[in-house]
Structure formats: structure tokens, C-alpha cells
């Protein structure tokens, strides 16, 4: 009798080498995740890409909390609660870890359509939706935090205060 383990191990190796499990190998030290500096309450990587900051007690930075709110206002209908995906659209929490920030911005802004024999998916363009575009960095940082499991499913229990800078930027973007 042969043992099934080699088949399972081979399948796992194929999934990993195809990139489907790539996010599992990402750590908090990854340059796309690690906080390099903070500016007015927003955290960035060395490359100037927005990232999240969750304190040891579970307090999330304001942009990540804002991203939770905006994701659930605009994105979860298709992509499922907490970035987990649905039968209709893929999980975004993993995409935010592996998709380049600028590619993420492009897809959200301009949309994307993939139609072929194996796939028929449409991501609408949100470039004119202020409820998305004014908070795109917040949504991105929330999804990165979810992908890293730095914030659990559901509304974050603790958050940093919304600074005056965020209020000013929000008012300017929303036309208030």
C-alpha cells in the first residue's frame, strides 16, 4: 500500500510554486509591509508605499480603521466581508500583499475585464467615485493588514484618533 503523503506534498509544492500560496511566505519584515516611517499619522514602507501599523495592544492606525469602513461601504458587496472573497469576486486581502501598489491603484481606478474560455470577470472602474478614491490608500492598508492577519475579521476594537490632518485632507478631497 502506498501512502498518500507524497501526492499531498507534491500538490502543496505545485500550489506554492505557482504562486497561489505566496502570501503565506510574507513576513512583517517584508519591504512591502514593514513600516519605515510615519508622516501625519500615515505609515509608509521604504519605497513610500502606504502600510499599516497595529500596536501590541491591537490598536490600529487611523488609515487602517478608515480602510475597514470604506472597504465595507464600497467593496465587500463583491469581494466579501473582510477581504475574504466570494463566489463572485476574489479575496483582496492576499492581492494587497502580492499585487504592486501602483497596479492596485490602476485596477481600482480604471477597472479590469478578463474574458476568455476559462474566466469572465469584470472589475468596474472607481476612478470617479470619491468614496473610494479619497480613501484608496486607507483601503489598501486595511487589506494589507487583513492579508497579514494583523487585524482580525470584523470591526477593529481599538483605533488611533483621527488627526486634524486627516480631517483636512478628507474635506478637501470630498469637496467640503
Automatic annotation (TrEMBL):
SUPFAM superfamilies: Cytochrome c. GO terms for molecular function: electron transfer activity; heme binding; metal ion binding. Residues 1-22 form the signal peptide. InterPro entries: C-typ_cyt_methanol_metab-rel, Cyt_c-like_dom, Cyt_c-like_dom_sf. Residues 43-147 form the Cytochrome c domain. Keywords: Heme, Iron, Metal-binding, Signal. NCBIfam families: 4cys_cytochr. This is C-type cytochrome, methanol metabolism-related.
Amino acid at each position: 500500500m502506498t501512502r498518500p503523503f507524497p501526492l499531498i506534498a507534491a500538490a502543496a509544492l505545485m500550489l506554492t510554486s505557482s504562486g497561489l500560496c505566496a502570501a503565506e511566505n510574507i513576513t512583517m519584515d517584508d519591504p512591502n509591509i514593514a513600516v519605515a516611517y510615519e508622516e501625519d499619522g500615515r505609515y509608509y514602507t521604504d519605497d513610500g508605499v502606504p502600510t499599516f501599523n497595529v500596536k501590541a495592544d491591537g490598536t490600529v492606525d487611523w488609515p487602517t480603521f478608515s480602510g475597514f469602513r470604506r472597504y465595507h461601504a464600497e467593496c465587500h458587496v463583491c469581494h466579501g466581508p473582510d477581504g475574504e472573497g466570494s463566489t463572485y469576486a476574489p479575496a483582496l486581502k492576499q492581492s494587497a500583499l502580492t499585487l504592486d501598489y501602483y497596479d492596485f491603484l490602476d485596477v481600482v481606478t480604471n477597472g479590469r475585464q478578463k474574458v476568455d474560455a476559462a474566466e469572465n470577470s469584470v472589475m468596474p472602474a472607481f476612478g470617479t467615485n470619491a468614496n473610494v478614491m479619497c480613501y484608496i490608500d486607507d483601503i489598501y492598508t486595511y487589506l494589507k493588514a487583513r492579508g497579514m492577519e494583523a487585524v482580525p475579521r470584523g470591526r477593529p476594537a481599538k483605533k488611533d484618533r483621527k488627526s486634524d490632518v486627516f480631517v483636512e485632507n478628507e474635506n478637501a478631497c470630498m469637496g467640503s
